[in-house]
Amino acid sequence: MRTALVLVFVAACLGCGGGATRWIGDAGRAHAEADALERSGNLERAGDLLQDLVSRPVPAGVAPQDARAVLQDTYARLANLALKRGKPADALHFADEGLRLGEAQDVFASSLRAFRGRALEALGRDAEAAREYEAAQAIAEALLSEALVDGGVR
Amino acid sequence: MTEEERPATPAELREAELLARALEEPSQPGRELTPVDDALGTAYLLRASKQGDLGELRARAVRQRIWRKGTWPLWARAAAAALAGIGAAAVILALQPRGPTRLPPPGVRLLQAQLAAARPGSSAEIARLEVETAAYREQFYGALGRAYGRRP
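^ inputs. structure came back:
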């Protein structure tokens, strides 16, 4: 009885860590599949695949910052796919969803701001679009300064 | 004449004799249960219940029922202990809040592409951003894979 309880406990704990590993692996594979689908022109299927990824619950074992990075990168890509399909309202929605997860001075926030600006521009909301572009540029410029100080072209 | 000096009554003598016999021959089989045995047993039970004790034999039986001693071979007990240790370690690791993964810093080309895409323009800037983002994504998922372990 005691052994069974210990085994169940161990399995549950390993399951926690396995969930995080699986989620990260699934996210990487979803992007790789979306790459192939985009190349073949199947933008809708690529979008569905990525939407499935962001709709899944994030396992508890994933660090919040890592989860945010994965999801914001995916939302930015979804926004771009929606723009390519001529759906700026969807693109705006995806960019907003991504930014709702939090904002840091990183490439993910910069991309989301840039795609939000593109969506707003496509919707004729130019003033708002300009503000989004400015925000995206401010982040990218700060990161670029850091990158140039740290070591040149990569 | 005090109470102690008073000669015993025939009933008291008989009771004393029965008590002596009961103490001398406690386990004689087939012996008739006497009022003295009965009284001794009752007194023992009362004392035990008052103290909330279990008899030594009964306590051992209860312990053996709960914790079957010696039913597992040594290797099984060692394996159980090892599993418990692994379980404890897994619990500690699982409950420990994980720190963020050290992600690769974005390259200059990606940041330049982001700057170019963050302004009104043609889709050429977006196409360049896509290429640079895809390259960064590969590094980014590589770092996450190393941090979280890979699974086929």
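Chain A has one domain: 2-150. The helical segments of chain A are 2-39, 43-55, 64-84, 88-100, 107-122, 126-150.
thumbs up if we can close this ticket
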